[in-house]
Amino acid sequence: MLIVTLIFSAFLIYSVEGQCSSTEDSYIGDLCYTIYNQQLSFQNAQSYCYGLNKNLGVIHTTLQSNFLASLVRTKTGSNEALFWIGLSRPSLNSRFQWDDGTTMSWSNFDSNFPKDNLNVAESVLNGKWRTMNGQEALFFVCSYDPRKVTPGTAGPTTTGYYTDGSTTSTDWPASTQTQSSSSGSTSDYPTDSSKS
Length: 196
Known about the structure:
This protein is of the alpha+beta class and 196 residues long. The chain has a single domain, classed as Mannose-Binding Protein A, Chain A (Roll), CATH 3.10.100.10. Helices cover 20% and strands 24% of the residues. It contains three helices and ten strands, in the order αββαβαβββββββ. The protein has helices at residues 2-15, 42-51, 62-76; strands spanning 26-28, 31-40, 55-56, 82-88, 97-98, 119-123, 129-132, 138-144, 158-161, 167-170. Strands 1, 2, 3, 4, 5, 6, 7 and 8 form an eight-stranded mixed β-sheet that branches. Residues 28-143 form the C-type lectin domain. InterPro entries: C-type_lectin-like (IPR001304), C-type_lectin-like/link_sf (IPR016186), CTDL_fold (IPR016187).
């Protein structure tokens, strides 16, 4: 069944690839993805994507997750690689949120790994997610909605205010400027039934 899904996915990707702004990008589901064969920390990968007016890889479906794992494996030549996706949380007691500001609506966490870090990476081996130390240098994927942005142009600029009243201009998308003041909950944090 996985092979049939991948073949069908490949057809869908290549039949609508023209929707992406670059021939290097892959259209999967409703987003375009760019795979980078360089390794950066989570924050540096996120900043790199923002500089291109993209987000660190947002994944909404199992199809997107599995196909990205296959594409990254092919591009990097590694069967053991991990790559950063744009899922993170500001603290261990907070909910996971995608880099584009959307909440996590489904989970693909590998139950064999602890979930005790803030940033999420995906394995090319099985497409499963695991939390990782954000300082780890991993491959990464950027994503964008081709109907909403033109990658390669400067992203929206938001003015930030410091406690001394001064302002600064940032290159972060406005959606990442706002943090919820509530502590959140772990209701969207997958439970690890293998641990007692």
